[in-house]
Write a structure and sequence with these properties.
By secondary structure, the protein is of the alpha/beta class. The chain has eight helices and seven strands, in the order βαβαβαβαβαβαβαα. Keywords: ATP-binding, NAD, Nucleotide-binding, Nucleotidyltransferase, Pyridine nucleotide biosynthesis, Transferase.
């Protein structure tokens, strides 16, 4: 069973690493793959290149032997659609491996805006991360129907099948924002408490987010 954490990682920070670590401990993933988006489909194009964002991911996970970078979206032309990445993953891993796409509850609430969103569970499970003691999650009718059809409360349901399940998982996430980090770097505010030192050195070396 593997976890996939996608995103722009602009830049990657301790919140991303904390999330991956906690989910790996709780759900016993063999590995967690970080998958940087080259051209985000639903966000503005970052002003830092995909290659630089990928370099920062590699530096951030260097001390985590069970974390990997998955660069397939950087090697593909056009928008970085999750469905294309999942199809490619299935071709690589076969149809037996349990693939869990890790996603925050806010992003999951907008899943119906994703390209070919209603096909995604044909290739993976969703692990939807919510904060403990947060208010009950509310979805629109499309997402509500998807949850009712596919939700499970049992980890074994993810382990024993390759795709098709939705698991809600509470994680005490760190309150760290890439947007705030970029603003802090631009204003020369210290970010050493929210990012790995390797990544900070890379940002300084390449004068990013100035």
């Amino acid at each position: 069973m593997i976890g996939i954490l996608g995103g722009t990682f602009n830049p990657i920070h301790n919140g991303h690493l904390h999330l991956a670590e906690r989910l790996q401990q709780t759900l016993a993933f063999e590995t967690v793959r970080f998958m940087p988006a080259a051209i985000p489909a639903l966000k503005d194009l970052p002003n830092v290149s995909a290659e630089q964002r990928a370099d920062m991911v590699k530096l951030a996970i260097v001390d985590h032997p069970t974390f990997q970078i998955d660069s397939r979206e950087l090697d593909r032309a056009g928008p970085s659609y999750t469905i294309d990445s999942l199809i490619s993953l299935r071709e690589e891993l076969g149809d037996k491996v349990s693939i869990c796409w890790l996603i925050g509850s806010d992003a999951f609430a907008r899943l119906h805006t994703w390209h070919r969103w209603n096909e995604l569970l044909d290739y993976c499970h969703f692990v939807v991360v919510k904060r403990p003691q947060s208010e009950d999650l509310t979805w629109n009718a499309k997402i509500e129907s998807l949850v009712e059809k596919h939700q499970t409360n049992h980890l074994n349901a993810l382990k024993n099948s390759a795709n098709g399940k939705i698991l809600m998982q509470e994680i005490a996430a760190l309150d760290i924002s890439s947007t705030q980090i970029r603003e802090n770097i631009a204003s020369k505010t210290n970010v050493s408490d929210v990012m790995p030192s390797h990544v900070i050195h890379y940002i300084q070396q390449h004068q990013l987010y100035q």
